[in-house]
């Protein structure tokens, strides 16, 4: 799975969890939650959806490392490969 | 026979528009069944019945604006239904204005009775500034129906558009000389901007009423959250991601348990203090487009933290999609608002009438903390209480905040 495909999947997921936002306009280093106004409930739903879609398990202590699109794309890419 | 009346879904609600009947005459219903969808300033709400029985007659039609307290349907007992069961296919009765209850204070009461018109037609005509006597009715016995008023509006659209009357807040419409006023009750789907505006107006009405009528007093306390956060990290580490808990459920549960200890704050002020037996905490959900929704978590004190998490996972997306049930909007006995994620430390809230208290939680931040003569750094949460001084005094509020603080020191027992 390419970085671009992961990014597209992330945008789709964000759009389904927060339909009134424009995740497609996120810049690579934008903080996802702050930029889109996503609270901890929505973010948890987002993580649940990503784990299911990519077959990974994201421990709570990693949340701090996946705050931007770039960080999250890299994080998933590394885990999907391994 | 019982009458099902348009419920009040908050201090700010005057009326709702019937969008859909989910039942028909002759249908058996049970307590909690959804019988209709109504559109309010807070979105499309599914309304529930509070009795078992059989639907007798449907008294209002789809798209009709129904003031709070107006009879919407009759509900028969099984015995009554057995003796007098209406034909299942029976349609709602034609609106007959002489029999229909007019909203209190409405100018429709002063209209001459010989002009037959449905309440909705009268309202639309009044809002649009059209003399109803000039409209030709096409309903039974020449009664003026909504469609007749809309035709009259369409005929007058161009000249009327320039002097648009003030619209009802629930149906804000953009009216420009280039864009004639659209007929009321054809606004599906409602534009997002209009919905946001109408929610804003609902919040404005409730908060203005509160500030006008409720003598607030405020108390605040700082809570060491190290034990609660350590317990959360530990339990979440053992749970699959789907079953993880958020700090908010601990806060909500601590409030519910504290209300068991200090029931005076689980109450409404309506013609005096009315203590509530059940604890239904209203949890504030901020909408990204502005405004808030406050769905009730029913029987909060009897739910485990896992059940509370499930309840929030169900309620929050529906609150954001403006798809709540009537009981979820109407039943809250106290409100909890948590603004910590935005970075603020302290929340001084405004009580949602007729409730008598609101608990505000700020963010959890690391702060210097002294205990047993030692200075250390702890994750600290500021909890505030806004309470109605007609209903309680500072000593009661103080016991309540202290109870919340104590419960959060024993998270495993929540």
Automatic annotation (TrEMBL), chain A:
Alphabetically sorted, this entry's keywords are: Phosphopantetheine, Phosphoprotein
The UniProt record lists the Carrier domain at 1-80
Q: Does the keyword Phosphoprotein apply?
A: yes
Look up the domain of life of the source.
Bacteria
Q: Does the keyword S-adenosyl-L-methionine apply?
A: no
User: What is the protein's given name?
Assistant: Phosphopantetheine-binding protein
UniProtKB/TrEMBL annotation, chain B:
Family statement: Belongs to the 2-oxoacid dehydrogenase family.
- Subunit relationships: Forms a 24-polypeptide structural core with octahedral symmetry.
Annotated PANTHER family: DIHYDROLIPOAMIDE ACETYLTRANSFERASE COMPONENT OF PYRUVATE DEHYDROGENASE COMPLEX, LIPOAMIDE ACYLTRANSFERASE COMPONENT OF BRANCHED-CHAIN ALPHA-KETO ACID DEHYDROGENASE COMPLEX, MITOCHONDRIAL
Query: Could you say which EC number(s) this protein's record lists?
Result: 2.3.1.-
Residues annotated as domain Lipoyl-binding: 1-76
The scientific name of the source species is Pontibacter anaerobius
Every Peripheral subunit-binding (PSBD) domain range: 116-153
**Signal sequence bounds:** none
Q: What is this protein called?
A: Dihydrolipoamide acetyltransferase component of pyruvate dehydrogenase complex
A Pfam family annotated for this chain is: E3_binding
Q: Which UniProt keywords apply?
A: Acyltransferase, Lipoyl, Transferase
Q: Does the keyword Glycosyltransferase apply?
A: no
Span list, region Disordered: 77-115
Q: Could you say which enzyme class this protein belongs to? A: transferase
| Cofactor or coenzyme needed | (R)-lipoate
């Amino acid at each position: 799975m390419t970085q671009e495909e992961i990014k597209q999947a992330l945008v789709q997921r964000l759009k389904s969890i927060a339909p009134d936002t424009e995740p497609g306009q996120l810049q690579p280093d934008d903080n996802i939650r702050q930029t889109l106004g996503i609270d901890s409930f929505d973010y948890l739903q987002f993580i649940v959806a990503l784990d299911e879609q990519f077959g990974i398990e994201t421990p709570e202590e990693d949340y701090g490392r996946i705050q931007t699109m770039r960080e999250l794309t890299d994080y998933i890419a590394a885990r999907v490969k391994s | 026979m019982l009458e099902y009346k348009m419920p009040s879904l908050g201090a700010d609600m005057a009326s709702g528009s019937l969008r859909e009947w989910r039942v028909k005459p002759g249908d058996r219903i049970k307590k909690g069944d959804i019988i209709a969808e109504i559109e309010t300033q807070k979105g499309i709400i599914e309304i529930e019945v509070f009795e078992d029985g059989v639907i007798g007659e449907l008294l209002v039609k789809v798209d009709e604006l129904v003031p709070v307290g107006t009879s919407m349907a009759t509900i028969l007992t099984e015995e009554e239904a057995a003796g007098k069961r209406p034909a299942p296919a029976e349609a709602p009765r034609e609106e007959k204005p002489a029999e229909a209850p007019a909203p209190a204070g409405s100018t429709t009461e002063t209209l001459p009775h010989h002009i037959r018109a449905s309440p909705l037609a009268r309202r639309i005509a009044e809002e649009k500034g059209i003399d109803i006597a000039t409209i030709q009715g096409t309903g039974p016995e020449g009664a003026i129906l909504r469609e007749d008023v809309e035709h009259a509006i369409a005929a007058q659209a161009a000249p009327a558009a320039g002097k648009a009357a003030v619209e009802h807040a629930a149906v804000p419409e953009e009216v420009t000389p280039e864009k004639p006023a659209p007929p009321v009750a054809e606004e599906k789907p409602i534009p997002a901007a209009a919905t946001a505006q109408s929610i804003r107006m609902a919040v404005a009405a409730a908060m203005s009423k509160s500030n006008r009528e409720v003598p607030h007093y405020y108390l605040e306390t700082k809570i060491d959250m190290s034990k609660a956060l350590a317990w959360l990290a530990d339990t979440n580490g053992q749970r699959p991601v789907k079953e993880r808990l958020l700090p908010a459920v601990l806060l909500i549960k601590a409030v519910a348990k504290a209300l068991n200890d200090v029931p005076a704050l689980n109450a409404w002020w309506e013609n005096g203090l009315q203590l509530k037996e059940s604890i239904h905490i209203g949890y504030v959900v901020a909408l990204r487009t502005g405004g808030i929704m406050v769905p009730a978590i029913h029987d909060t004190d009897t739910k485990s933290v896992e059940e509370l998490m499930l309840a929030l996972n169900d309620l929050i997306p529906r609150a954001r999609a403006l798809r709540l049930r009537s009981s979820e909007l109407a039943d809250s006995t106290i409100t909890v608002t948590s603004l910590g994620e935005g970075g603020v430390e302290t929340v001084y809230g405004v009580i949602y009438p007729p409730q008598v208290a609101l608990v505000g939680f700020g963010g959890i931040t690391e702060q210097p903390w002294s205990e047993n003569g030692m200075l250390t750094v702890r994750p600290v949460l500021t909890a505030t209480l806004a309470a109605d001084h007609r209903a309680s005094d500072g000593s009661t509020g103080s016991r309540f905040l202290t109870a919340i603080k104590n419960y959060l020191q024993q998270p495993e027992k929540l």
